[in-house]
Amino acid sequence: VTTVSLRATSDRLAALGVVRPTLLVDRRRVQANLDLFAARARAAGVRLRPHVKTHQSPAIAGWQRDAGSPAITVSSLEMAAYFADQGWDDITLALPVNPRAAAAIAALARRVTLGVIVEGPSVVRTLAGPLRVWIEVDVGHHRTGVPWDDDARLVEVVAAIGAVPDLAFAGLLTHAGQSYAGDAAAVFVAARERMQRARQAIGGVGEISVGDTPGCFGEPDWRGVDEVRPGNYVFCDLMQVQAGVCPPQRVACAVACPVLATYADRVVVHGGAVHLTKERLEDANGAWYGELLTLDDAGFAALLRSRRVTGLSQEHGVIAAEGLDDELVPGDVVLVAPVHSCLTCEQFSSYRTLDGEVLPRMARG
Ligand code: PLP
Protein backbone atom coordinates (compact mmCIF):
# COMPACT_ATOMS: atom_id res chain seq x y z
CA VAL A 1 0.00 0.00 0.00
CA THR A 2 2.78 2.36 1.01
CA THR A 3 4.80 2.02 -2.16
CA VAL A 4 1.74 2.31 -4.40
CA SER A 5 0.77 5.53 -2.70
CA LEU A 6 4.34 6.89 -2.81
CA ARG A 7 4.27 6.36 -6.58
CA ALA A 8 0.90 8.12 -6.90
CA THR A 9 2.10 10.88 -4.58
CA SER A 10 5.17 11.44 -6.73
CA ASP A 11 3.05 11.64 -9.88
CA ARG A 12 0.75 14.20 -8.25
CA LEU A 13 3.67 16.30 -7.02
CA ALA A 14 5.32 16.15 -10.42
CA ALA A 15 2.03 17.29 -11.97
CA LEU A 16 2.14 20.29 -9.64
CA GLY A 17 5.43 21.22 -11.31
CA VAL A 18 7.67 20.56 -8.31
CA VAL A 19 11.33 20.67 -9.39
CA ARG A 20 12.95 21.95 -6.20
CA PRO A 21 12.08 21.81 -2.49
CA THR A 22 8.64 23.41 -2.35
CA LEU A 23 6.50 24.25 0.65
CA LEU A 24 2.98 22.92 0.11
CA VAL A 25 -0.13 23.78 2.06
CA ASP A 26 -3.33 21.74 2.12
CA ARG A 27 -5.99 24.44 2.36
CA ARG A 28 -8.74 22.00 3.26
CA ARG A 29 -6.78 20.82 6.31
CA VAL A 30 -5.88 24.38 7.30
CA GLN A 31 -9.55 25.28 7.13
CA ALA A 32 -10.47 22.33 9.37
CA ASN A 33 -7.90 23.54 11.93
CA LEU A 34 -9.19 27.13 11.74
CA ASP A 35 -12.78 25.96 12.07
CA LEU A 36 -12.05 23.86 15.17
CA PHE A 37 -10.38 26.72 17.03
CA ALA A 38 -12.92 29.29 15.85
CA ALA A 39 -15.72 27.07 17.18
CA ARG A 40 -14.00 26.68 20.57
CA ALA A 41 -13.47 30.44 20.82
CA ARG A 42 -17.10 31.11 19.93
CA ALA A 43 -18.39 28.53 22.40
CA ALA A 44 -16.35 30.11 25.21
CA GLY A 45 -17.02 33.73 24.21
CA VAL A 46 -13.25 34.25 23.90
CA ARG A 47 -11.34 36.35 21.36
CA LEU A 48 -9.08 34.22 19.11
CA ARG A 49 -6.13 36.44 18.16
CA PRO A 50 -3.99 34.05 16.07
CA HIS A 51 -0.21 34.32 16.18
CA VAL A 52 0.70 34.83 12.52
CA LYS A 53 4.42 34.16 13.01
CA THR A 54 3.67 30.52 12.11
CA HIS A 55 2.71 31.35 8.51
CA GLN A 56 3.57 35.06 7.97
CA SER A 57 1.22 34.99 5.00
CA PRO A 58 -1.35 37.71 4.27
CA ALA A 59 -3.54 35.18 2.44
CA ILE A 60 -3.60 32.72 5.34
CA ALA A 61 -4.21 35.56 7.81
CA GLY A 62 -7.15 36.42 5.56
CA TRP A 63 -8.52 32.88 5.99
CA GLN A 64 -8.23 33.41 9.75
CA ARG A 65 -10.09 36.72 9.47
CA ASP A 66 -12.83 34.96 7.48
CA ALA A 67 -13.00 32.35 10.28
CA GLY A 68 -13.77 35.12 12.77
CA SER A 69 -10.46 36.66 13.87
CA PRO A 70 -10.10 40.35 12.97
CA ALA A 71 -7.06 40.88 15.24
CA ILE A 72 -3.63 39.21 15.19
CA THR A 73 -0.49 38.55 17.23
CA VAL A 74 3.02 39.02 15.79
CA SER A 75 6.55 38.40 17.07
CA SER A 76 8.52 41.33 15.64
CA LEU A 77 8.03 45.00 14.91
CA GLU A 78 8.79 44.29 11.24
CA MET A 79 5.99 41.70 11.19
CA ALA A 80 3.63 44.19 12.81
CA ALA A 81 4.46 46.79 10.13
CA TYR A 82 4.13 44.20 7.34
CA PHE A 83 0.63 43.18 8.45
CA ALA A 84 -0.33 46.82 9.10
CA ASP A 85 0.58 47.51 5.46
CA GLN A 86 -1.78 44.64 4.52
CA GLY A 87 -4.67 46.38 6.29
CA TRP A 88 -4.57 44.76 9.74
CA ASP A 89 -5.41 47.42 12.31
CA ASP A 90 -5.39 45.56 15.65
CA ILE A 91 -2.05 43.91 16.37
CA THR A 92 -0.31 42.64 19.51
CA LEU A 93 3.48 42.49 19.37
CA ALA A 94 4.04 39.57 21.76
CA LEU A 95 7.79 39.85 22.25
CA PRO A 96 9.08 41.91 25.18
CA VAL A 97 9.63 45.53 24.11
CA ASN A 98 13.15 46.43 23.13
CA PRO A 99 13.57 49.98 24.50
CA ARG A 100 15.76 50.84 21.50
CA ALA A 101 12.71 50.33 19.29
CA ALA A 102 10.44 52.60 21.36
CA ALA A 103 10.34 55.39 18.74
CA ALA A 104 9.50 52.96 15.92
CA ILE A 105 6.82 51.34 18.10
CA ALA A 106 5.26 54.75 18.81
CA ALA A 107 5.26 55.57 15.08
CA LEU A 108 3.42 52.33 14.23
CA ALA A 109 1.04 52.87 17.16
CA ARG A 110 -0.15 56.07 15.50
CA ARG A 111 -1.28 54.02 12.45
CA VAL A 112 -2.91 50.98 14.09
CA THR A 113 -4.17 49.78 17.46
CA LEU A 114 -0.96 48.30 18.80
CA GLY A 115 -0.43 46.17 21.89
CA VAL A 116 2.98 45.44 23.41
CA ILE A 117 4.18 43.31 26.31
CA VAL A 118 6.41 44.40 29.18
CA GLU A 119 7.65 42.81 32.37
CA GLY A 120 9.26 45.69 34.24
CA PRO A 121 8.79 49.37 35.08
CA SER A 122 12.07 50.55 33.52
CA VAL A 123 10.92 49.46 30.06
CA VAL A 124 7.48 50.98 30.62
CA ARG A 125 9.11 54.38 31.20
CA THR A 126 10.74 54.25 27.72
CA LEU A 127 7.37 53.87 25.97
CA ALA A 128 5.30 56.54 24.27
CA GLY A 129 1.71 55.95 23.27
CA PRO A 130 -0.88 55.49 22.14
CA LEU A 131 -0.27 51.88 23.18
CA ARG A 132 -2.11 49.01 24.79
CA VAL A 133 0.32 47.55 27.29
CA TRP A 134 0.12 43.96 28.53
CA ILE A 135 2.16 42.66 31.42
CA GLU A 136 3.77 39.39 30.45
CA VAL A 137 3.31 36.79 33.18
CA ASP A 138 5.37 33.63 33.67
CA VAL A 139 3.08 30.76 34.64
CA GLY A 140 5.82 28.12 34.51
CA HIS A 141 7.59 28.36 31.15
CA HIS A 142 10.44 30.37 32.70
CA ARG A 143 11.27 32.25 29.51
CA THR A 144 10.20 35.85 30.15
CA GLY A 145 7.52 37.44 32.31
CA VAL A 146 6.74 38.43 35.87
CA PRO A 147 6.31 35.30 38.02
CA TRP A 148 2.56 34.77 38.36
CA ASP A 149 2.71 34.90 42.17
CA ASP A 150 4.92 37.99 42.47
CA ASP A 151 2.07 40.27 43.54
CA ALA A 152 4.30 43.20 44.43
CA ARG A 153 5.97 43.25 41.03
CA LEU A 154 2.64 42.98 39.21
CA VAL A 155 1.23 45.91 41.18
CA GLU A 156 4.39 47.91 40.54
CA VAL A 157 4.22 47.41 36.76
CA VAL A 158 0.52 48.29 36.62
CA ALA A 159 1.32 51.52 38.46
CA ALA A 160 4.20 52.30 36.11
CA ILE A 161 1.90 51.89 33.10
CA GLY A 162 -0.67 54.17 34.73
CA ALA A 163 1.95 56.87 35.21
CA VAL A 164 2.78 57.26 31.51
CA PRO A 165 0.31 59.30 29.45
CA ASP A 166 -1.20 57.52 26.45
CA LEU A 167 -0.45 54.04 27.76
CA ALA A 168 -3.54 51.93 28.39
CA PHE A 169 -3.19 48.89 30.62
CA ALA A 170 -4.58 45.98 28.58
CA GLY A 171 -4.17 43.12 31.05
CA LEU A 172 -2.03 40.06 31.73
CA LEU A 173 -0.59 37.89 28.95
CA THR A 174 1.20 34.56 29.07
CA HIS A 175 2.60 31.88 26.78
CA ALA A 176 2.56 28.59 28.70
CA GLY A 177 5.17 26.97 26.45
CA GLN A 178 5.79 24.27 29.03
CA SER A 179 2.77 22.58 27.42
CA TYR A 180 5.18 21.27 24.74
CA ALA A 181 6.83 19.06 27.36
CA GLY A 182 3.92 17.85 29.45
CA ASP A 183 0.21 17.21 29.84
CA ALA A 184 -1.07 20.06 27.66
CA ALA A 185 -4.61 20.12 29.05
CA ALA A 186 -3.33 20.24 32.63
CA VAL A 187 -0.91 23.03 31.67
CA PHE A 188 -3.77 25.05 30.16
CA VAL A 189 -5.92 24.61 33.27
CA ALA A 190 -3.06 25.53 35.63
CA ALA A 191 -2.08 28.54 33.51
CA ARG A 192 -5.67 29.81 33.54
CA GLU A 193 -5.86 29.46 37.33
CA ARG A 194 -2.55 31.24 37.83
CA MET A 195 -3.57 34.07 35.52
CA GLN A 196 -6.86 34.47 37.36
CA ARG A 197 -4.99 34.54 40.64
CA ALA A 198 -2.54 37.16 39.27
CA ARG A 199 -5.44 39.30 38.10
CA GLN A 200 -6.96 39.21 41.57
CA ALA A 201 -3.62 40.45 42.95
CA ILE A 202 -3.90 43.62 40.84
CA GLY A 203 -7.49 44.32 41.81
CA GLY A 204 -9.24 42.37 39.06
CA VAL A 205 -8.44 44.89 36.30
CA GLY A 206 -7.55 44.10 32.69
CA GLU A 207 -7.99 41.06 30.46
CA ILE A 208 -6.32 37.64 30.51
CA SER A 209 -4.59 36.50 27.31
CA VAL A 210 -3.14 32.98 26.98
CA GLY A 211 -1.92 31.05 23.99
CA ASP A 212 0.01 27.95 23.04
CA THR A 213 -1.18 25.38 20.54
CA PRO A 214 -0.83 22.24 22.70
CA GLY A 215 -2.83 23.79 25.56
CA CYS A 216 -5.55 25.05 23.22
CA PHE A 217 -5.84 21.59 21.63
CA GLY A 218 -5.69 19.79 24.95
CA GLU A 219 -8.35 21.78 26.80
CA PRO A 220 -11.47 22.30 24.69
CA ASP A 221 -13.21 24.61 27.20
CA TRP A 222 -11.58 28.04 27.04
CA ARG A 223 -13.95 29.85 29.40
CA GLY A 224 -12.22 31.89 32.08
CA VAL A 225 -9.82 33.79 29.82
CA ASP A 226 -10.55 36.74 27.52
CA GLU A 227 -8.20 35.93 24.63
CA VAL A 228 -6.24 33.01 23.16
CA ARG A 229 -3.24 33.43 20.83
CA PRO A 230 -2.22 30.06 19.32
CA GLY A 231 -0.17 30.09 16.11
CA ASN A 232 0.99 26.61 15.24
CA TYR A 233 -2.57 25.18 15.13
CA VAL A 234 -2.91 26.41 11.53
CA PHE A 235 -0.48 23.77 10.21
CA CYS A 236 0.36 21.54 13.22
CA ASP A 237 3.42 19.31 12.73
CA LEU A 238 5.14 16.11 13.83
CA MET A 239 5.99 17.58 17.21
CA GLN A 240 2.28 18.00 17.95
CA VAL A 241 1.41 14.55 16.56
CA GLN A 242 4.21 12.85 18.48
CA ALA A 243 3.08 14.50 21.71
CA GLY A 244 -0.46 13.26 21.10
CA VAL A 245 -1.74 16.84 20.92
CA CYS A 246 -3.48 16.35 17.58
CA PRO A 247 -4.10 13.52 15.09
CA PRO A 248 -1.90 13.20 11.96
CA GLN A 249 -4.83 14.37 9.79
CA ARG A 250 -4.32 17.91 11.07
CA VAL A 251 -0.81 18.28 9.60
CA ALA A 252 -1.44 20.86 6.87
CA CYS A 253 1.95 21.90 5.48
CA ALA A 254 4.79 19.80 4.11
CA VAL A 255 7.85 20.07 1.89
CA ALA A 256 7.84 18.42 -1.54
CA CYS A 257 11.37 17.10 -2.05
CA PRO A 258 12.75 15.78 -5.37
CA VAL A 259 14.54 12.42 -5.18
CA LEU A 260 18.25 12.82 -6.02
CA ALA A 261 19.61 9.27 -5.61
CA THR A 262 18.46 5.82 -4.50
CA TYR A 263 20.32 2.92 -2.85
CA ALA A 264 19.30 -0.44 -1.41
CA ASP A 265 19.29 0.99 2.10
CA ARG A 266 18.26 4.63 1.53
CA VAL A 267 16.75 7.28 -0.68
CA VAL A 268 18.36 10.71 -0.78
CA VAL A 269 16.20 13.74 -1.48
CA HIS A 270 16.72 17.42 -2.14
CA GLY A 271 15.42 18.61 1.19
CA GLY A 272 18.07 19.32 3.80
CA ALA A 273 18.61 21.35 6.92
CA VAL A 274 18.03 24.61 5.04
CA HIS A 275 14.53 23.40 4.17
CA LEU A 276 13.41 21.15 7.04
CA THR A 277 15.62 22.72 9.77
CA LYS A 278 17.40 20.58 12.33
CA GLU A 279 14.38 20.42 14.62
CA ARG A 280 14.15 16.74 15.48
CA LEU A 281 12.25 14.05 17.27
CA GLU A 282 14.00 11.23 19.02
CA ASP A 283 13.17 7.71 20.18
CA ALA A 284 15.08 4.53 20.99
CA ASN A 285 15.99 4.14 17.29
CA GLY A 286 17.55 7.59 17.04
CA ALA A 287 16.60 11.03 15.76
CA TRP A 288 14.51 12.05 12.76
CA TYR A 289 13.69 15.32 10.98
CA GLY A 290 10.57 14.57 8.96
CA GLU A 291 8.14 11.82 7.94
CA LEU A 292 6.75 10.94 4.52
CA LEU A 293 3.20 11.91 3.72
CA THR A 294 1.08 10.68 0.82
CA LEU A 295 -1.23 12.67 -1.44
CA ASP A 296 -4.56 11.52 -2.84
CA ASP A 297 -7.29 13.25 -4.84
CA ALA A 298 -8.56 15.08 -1.77
CA GLY A 299 -5.14 16.35 -0.66
CA PHE A 300 -2.68 15.29 2.05
CA ALA A 301 -3.48 11.69 2.95
CA ALA A 302 -1.54 9.23 5.17
CA LEU A 303 1.38 10.11 7.40
CA LEU A 304 3.84 7.21 7.05
CA ARG A 305 5.16 7.25 10.58
CA SER A 306 7.95 4.75 9.98
CA ARG A 307 9.25 6.43 6.79
CA ARG A 308 11.55 8.96 8.36
CA VAL A 309 14.16 11.46 7.25
CA THR A 310 16.95 10.27 9.54
CA GLY A 311 19.90 12.23 8.20
CA LEU A 312 20.37 15.81 7.02
CA SER A 313 23.09 17.87 5.50
CA GLN A 314 22.64 21.38 4.15
CA GLU A 315 20.76 20.38 0.97
CA HIS A 316 20.30 16.59 1.35
CA GLY A 317 17.81 14.56 3.33
CA VAL A 318 18.38 10.83 3.84
CA ILE A 319 15.44 8.46 4.19
CA ALA A 320 16.82 5.23 5.56
CA ALA A 321 14.57 2.46 4.28
CA GLU A 322 15.13 -0.90 2.65
CA GLY A 323 13.45 -1.45 -0.68
CA LEU A 324 12.30 2.10 -1.36
CA ASP A 325 14.75 2.14 -4.28
CA ASP A 326 12.47 -0.32 -6.08
CA GLU A 327 9.74 2.30 -6.13
CA LEU A 328 11.43 5.65 -6.39
CA VAL A 329 13.92 6.87 -8.98
CA PRO A 330 15.74 10.20 -9.33
CA GLY A 331 13.27 12.77 -10.58
CA ASP A 332 10.46 11.42 -8.44
CA VAL A 333 9.17 13.59 -5.61
CA VAL A 334 8.29 12.77 -2.01
CA LEU A 335 6.34 14.84 0.48
CA VAL A 336 7.93 15.38 3.90
CA ALA A 337 5.96 16.52 6.96
CA PRO A 338 8.09 18.81 9.15
CA VAL A 339 8.93 18.35 12.82
CA HIS A 340 8.24 22.02 13.60
CA SER A 341 6.16 23.81 10.97
CA CYS A 342 6.87 27.38 12.18
CA LEU A 343 10.60 26.98 11.61
CA THR A 344 10.29 24.99 8.38
CA CYS A 345 7.96 27.59 6.83
CA GLU A 346 10.47 30.27 7.82
CA GLN A 347 12.88 28.71 5.29
CA PHE A 348 10.64 29.50 2.31
CA SER A 349 9.47 32.71 0.65
CA SER A 350 6.08 31.36 -0.41
CA TYR A 351 3.59 28.51 -0.14
CA ARG A 352 2.06 26.51 -2.96
CA THR A 353 -1.50 25.29 -2.48
CA LEU A 354 -2.56 21.96 -3.95
CA ASP A 355 -4.48 24.00 -6.55
CA GLY A 356 -1.17 25.52 -7.67
CA GLU A 357 -1.81 28.94 -6.14
CA VAL A 358 1.32 30.72 -4.83
CA LEU A 359 0.91 32.50 -1.47
CA PRO A 360 3.77 34.88 -0.60
CA ARG A 361 5.25 35.17 2.88
CA MET A 362 6.85 38.13 4.55
CA ALA A 363 10.45 38.42 3.32
CA ARG A 364 13.11 37.57 5.89
CA GLY A 365 15.00 40.53 7.33
N1 PLP B 1 2.19 33.83 22.17
C1 PLP B 1 3.51 33.94 22.40
C2 PLP B 1 4.01 35.06 23.25
C3 PLP B 1 4.40 33.02 21.85
O1 PLP B 1 5.72 33.13 22.09
C4 PLP B 1 3.87 31.96 21.05
C5 PLP B 1 4.77 30.96 20.47
O2 PLP B 1 5.95 30.90 20.74
C6 PLP B 1 2.49 31.89 20.84
C7 PLP B 1 1.68 32.84 21.41
C8 PLP B 1 1.87 30.81 19.99
O3 PLP B 1 2.08 29.53 20.49
P1 PLP B 1 2.16 28.23 19.58
O4 PLP B 1 3.40 28.36 18.75
O5 PLP B 1 2.23 27.10 20.54
O6 PLP B 1 0.96 28.20 18.74
Description:
There is one protein chain. With 365 residues, the chain is of the alpha/beta class. 31% of the residues lie in helices and 29% in strands. The radius of gyration is 22 Å and the shape is elongated. The model has no long low-confidence stretch (mean pLDDT 96). Bound molecules: pyridoxal-5'-phosphate. The site of pyridoxal-5'-phosphate has 11 residues, from loops.
What is this structure's SSE topology?
Layout: H1 2-15, E1 22-25, H2 27-44, E2 47-48, H3 58-66, E3 72-74, H4 77-85, E4 90-96, H5 102-109, E5 113-118, H6 121-124, E6 131-138, E7 146-147, H7 151-162, E8 167-173, H8 184-201, E9 207-210, H9 213-218, E10 227-228, H10 238-242, E11 253-262, E12 266-270, H11 273-276, E13 281-283, E14 286-288, E15 290-296, E16 299-312, E17 316-320, E18 333-338, H12 341-345, E19 350-353, E20 358-360
Parallel strand pairs: 1-19, 2-10, 3-4, 4-5, 5-6, 6-7, 6-8, 8-9, 9-10
Antiparallel strand pairs: 1-11, 11-12, 11-18, 12-17, 13-14, 15-16, 15-18, 16-17, 19-20
Kindly list the characteristics that best describe this protein.
binds pyridoxal-5'-phosphate, alpha/beta, 365 residues, 31% helix, 6-stranded antiparallel β-barrel
Quaternary form? single chain
Number of helices: 12
The overall average pLDDT, rounded, is: 96
Distance between the termini: 44 Å
Number of strands: 20
Bound molecules: pyridoxal-5'-phosphate
Major sheet summary line: 9 strands, parallel
Low-confidence stretches: none
Q: Helical proportion?
A: 25-40%
Shape: elongated
* Global structural class: alpha/beta
Instruction: Bin the strand percentage.
Output: 25-35%
Radius of gyration: 22 Å
